[in-house]
Amino acid sequence: MAQIAEELGVSRFTVSSVINGRAEERRISRATVERIRAHLDERGYVPSRLAVDLRASPPNTVGILHTGRLYSHLTEAFNRIVDMFNDSPRRMEIMVVASRELGAGIRELLARGVSRLVLLRNSPTWPEPPGPALCGYLARVDAVIYNYHFGFNGPTDELLAAGCHLVGVDRAEGLRRLARLIARLGHRRAILPGGPPGGLLHGLLARALTAEGLAVVAPEEPPAEDAAPREQGLAFARATVAAMQRDGVTVACCNDDEIAAHALAELGRCGVAVPRDLSLTGFDGIPIADALMPTLTTLRVPVEDMVRRVRCILDGDRDERRHVFPLELVRGGTLAGRPRPKLATSPRPRNTRPAQPPPRPAPTTRQPEDAAPATPQPPPPAHGAPRPSRAAPPTARPHAAAPAAPRPHGAASATSQSPGMVPGTAPPPAAARGTPRTSSNTPPAPRPTGAAAAKPQPTGAAPDTTQPPQQKEDDAPCS
Asked: What sign results for the dihedral spanned by CA atoms 84, 87, 92, 95?
């Protein structure tokens, strides 16, 4: 622009007024405007619309500034904030800068006409304490610092003095509740992902676990901080398996639900069952925690409530500057009691079959002392020799059936005593089993004739109870 002004022999202010459409407002002659525009067309100069819009931006522009990458619950918060301002007439300016360039980013947003600022923090530590310059920049806008780490040694007093609103959670109290639950379930050794000594887990959670009597170990080779969540999860899972065998670790605590999800999958591939062999916890409470199997035990950040509070602050509700939200302890299926120690067993050599048990002895039957000695059996015949024939035992010929005895008639055929029988006299015995009974069609036996029939019975004498001879059981026919 300075070169064009020099070529035309006018001031830079005049060229800028023509380009920005403010020539009439600043009373620049029509001839000068036409001469400048013709020269611009001749050179093919196209003014930057972005620069023009920045100059004319209204004072209610909202800036969103974050350092580093967004992870887990910060991603959800960023999307909610963007959706919130999409429905409002406010203009948005989004900028990403390195953590060490925080002051330069705020200064750039102020130059773009930003009057309200949302600063997304992804780390509890600051690259350097906020000095007078940074606090001066923050005092010129309505600044909201989202995801502020309460309970950590941060520059709380300096930021409040600059007029900033701090919106965050009390991590220290939430991690203490998680540590108490882990200790109550009987765990005595825990592993953390590792990191800087003043980091989140090695600072707050390590102190909380130690206060509950747990021993805290760290991986021998902690993953890099700038590694992807999948790489961190896989490395942490392998380090946890080694710590289980070396230090007897029974619980692993991740500082991110996404890292915990990848660690859970890798532990399963390594043969570690969660929570039977190892308990696992996360942090953030993103929706993926409820989709895992088993569900993840984690500390949930109330993102929806925190974003709603940000909108209230930007709309004018600025009475309170400290906005502390509690973490919600979500008990999932990955946290259980301390597993029982397994019995030490000698490893079985590979590609070998187990030894066969010795054959059991044949059962022996105890013979009574007076039993006859067993008859020795002849040895089996040699191969090819004719087998001796066995003679069939003689079959007993059945006896001839004896003639059926005549059935007595009259009083003698009754089974009960008749009036003419002597008391105490037993009834006639029944026929032996197997003896054929006479049919009712058999004619009665002939009555005796002659003297035997005419022989009178003495008076008072017992009746003749003489029975025909009984058939013995041996004479019964063979069945």
From this structure: positive
Please give the pLDDT value at position 39. Answer: 81
CATH 3.10.410.10 for domain 58-170: no
Radius of gyration of the chain from its Cα atoms, rounded to whole angstroms: 55
CATH of domain 2-53: 1.10.260.40
Tally helices (H) and strands (E) across the chain: 15, 12
- Residue 296's nearest CA partner among 331, 258, 256 is 331
What proportion of the chain, given as a percentage, has pLDDT over 90?
Answer: 29
Inform me whether the pLDDT recorded for 190 exceeds 90: yes
**DSSP for 396-439, written as a single string:** PPPPPPPPPPPPP-GGGG-SSPPTTSPTTPPPPPPPPTTPPPPP
Strand partners, 332: none
Residue 381, pLDDT above cutoff 50: yes
The CATH classification number of 171-300 equals: 3.40.50.2300
Residues 275/335, Cβ–Cβ less than 8 Å: yes
Could you tell me the residue ranges of all domains in the chain?
2-53, 58-170, 171-300
Classify burial at 363, counting beta carbons within 10 Å of its beta carbon; exposed 0-12, middle 13-18, buried 19 or more. exposed
Closest CA to 240 of 296, 193, 182, 299: 193
Residues 193/222, Cβ–Cβ less than 8 Å: yes
Question: Measured between alpha carbons, how far is 373 from 312 in angstroms, rounded to an integer?
Answer: 109
Ramachandran angles phi, psi of 65, nearest 5°: -125, 130
Decide if 58-170 and 171-300 have a common fold.
Answer: yes
- What are the φ/ψ torsions at residue 110 (nearest 5 degrees)? -65, -35
Which tokens sit at 154? 């941060």
